[in-house]
Amino acid sequence: MYEDLINLNINIEKEEVDKFKKFQDFFLKYNEKINLVSRKEVNLLFEKHIFDSLAINLFFDKYKIKNACKIMDIGTGGGFPSIPCALHYKNLNVVALDSINKKINFIRTAKKEFSIDNINPICCRVEDLPFKYKNSFDIVITRAMAELRIILEYAMPYIKIGGYFIAYKSVKADDEIINAQNALKTLNAKVIDKIEYILPIEGENKRVLLIIKKEKETPSIYPRKNGLVKKNPL
Length: 234
Known about the structure:
By secondary structure, the protein is of the alpha/beta class. Helix content is 35%, strand content 24%. It is built from nine helices and seven strands; from the N terminus they run αααβαβαββαβααββα. A seven-stranded mixed sheet has the order 3-2-1-4-5-7-6, with helices on both faces. α1 runs antiparallel to α5. The radius of gyration is 17 Å and the shape is globular.
């Protein structure tokens, strides 16, 4: 199944394939205890989670991102996309953020088990992050987290001017972009690209990376706290 990564312009050596397979086994055993992903998706862990996570390579290739980058994965859950990205891209410094302690504990355990030195798990709500994290990341990513107009407010304050927000989305991305026009304008962000790809599964397998650039500094009041981001989206 790892030969499918060729479609993402990824060629990995046998040693790395073996490491990913060991991670899969480790994840599946852990998942039996705390249910990191739903049971119906367990048999498609590579196709729906690892492959999908590594689709970011389509962005790296197209935009010729070769230098070391500081990335934050908001709402990482069981470590997707953060763990596959950190495992494969040694030049990334990845912050894996989630507010659920059991999920962050899994990432901490995986970090130790597989010596993933370039990942930093943090248990915190994104709107409660210390001020030092604002304007500090080259790239922020989210996957299957929330509607675009909501996650924009969570993501944009933490990106450097000229940096990128990458949202993993389904084919309904165009509708979300329409609904997010006010948020984009308010947060000084612009959708500059949509990169389409296909998951190696049957059925609904079309996915999109929305590439959003931070053009100017985000107003300091964002992200709002006390649940206002979801209660009253921009």
